[in-house]
Each structure stands twice: as structure tokens, then as C-alpha cells.
Amino acid sequence: MKNVLIFIVATAVAGTSGYALQRYLASDRDTHSVPVTEIASPIIGKTRPEFAMMDIEGNIRNIKDWDGQIVLLNFWATWCPPCLEEIPGFIEIQQELGNRGFQIIGVAVDNEENVREFANEMAMNYPILAGEMEAIELSQKYGNTIGGLPFSAIIDKNGKVTHTIMGELSKDRLISILEQLGLAV
To answer: I need a surface site. Which of 101, 106, 115, 141 has the fewest CB within 10 A?
Structure first.
């Protein structure tokens, strides 16, 4: 009898927890969003760290490939809800501004196969680099000392890091930063 009572209580707790989680996830996302924080990182104002990584097409890409452009280096993962929220806006901005000296580079802290599948489903129109520990270590070099996602670093046309941002980066905020950097939006 005691085991039956424990089972009933455990089932009730699990059911209530599942229902509460479902309601939380289905509720208005803005009431639960992670705040965006510009990090006063020691890398700001310094030349961007050099790196080369494999993209999801199997090509080695070097950060130097985008010299002379304003670059948004965005660290993300397929399992990160705020990361997935910002991607549609990034796709739009890349489409609108890609021919004006702006380039988004996605660096996925994730399994390459998962990233490739997701990028194809979303029709991501900017280079996607994938690495697990390598991507984490790279994000740290760019100022992500706590290892949170999403994390973005913005690099000006001269190769200097101008902003580091922890949390979901909205399209409007990104456009504001790009205007500050002199990009005609």
C-alpha cells in the first residue's frame, strides 16, 4: 500500500510539473527572456583574435577572410532557445546588408551534423562554423568568460572588437550598433 501511495504522489508531482513547464514554455516569451548585456570586456578596442575553423561545408575559414568588413561573430547552439530566436533576424539583416560591408559568422557550440541539419532547415545565409570545445575556447578569447550563449562579438572594418554582447541580440539593437559603426542601413 505504501508503494502505491508513493507512486500516486510521484505521478501527481510529475504531471503537475509537466503541465507547469508546458504553460511556461507556451506563455509570452518576452516575460521570460534573458536580458541582453553588453559586457565591458578587456578585448573591446583590441584587435580581434585570429582563428581558423571548419565550416559546415567542410571548408577551413579564417577570420581574415572578412577583413575590411564589419563582422558579427555570433556564438550559438541548436539546443539554446534564445540563440534560435535571434537567427531569423540575422538572416534578414545578412540579406539586407551583406552587400554593404557587413558579414555575420555563426560559430556553433554544437555537433557539426546537428548544426548542418538545422542551418539547412533555416536556410541560413551566412557562414556557419561548427565546433564543440574549439568553439567554446574561441568564445572565451572573444570575451565570453562565463561561457553563456548566445554570445556575440562585433568587429569593425579595422579588425577591432567594438562590442561583446551576452544574450539574445535583437535585429533593432544590431542595426543600432551597425549605424554607430558607420554602416549605411
So the answer is: 141
Q: Indicate the number of domains in the chain.
A: 2
Q: Can you give the residue range of the structural domain that contains 3?
A: 1-32
Judge contact between 132 and 109, C-beta under 8 A.
yes
The tens digit of pLDDT for each residue in 69-87 reads 999 999 999 999 999 999 9
Kindly report the pTM of this predicted structure: 0.80
Same domain, 81 and 15: no
Question: Could you give the CA distance from residue 131 to residue 112 in angstroms, rounded to a whole number?
Answer: 7
Same domain, 150 and 132: yes
Tell me how far apart the alpha carbons of residues 78 and 9 are, in angstroms, rounded to a whole number. 35
Asked if 153 contacts 73 with a C-beta cutoff of 8 angstroms, the reply is yes
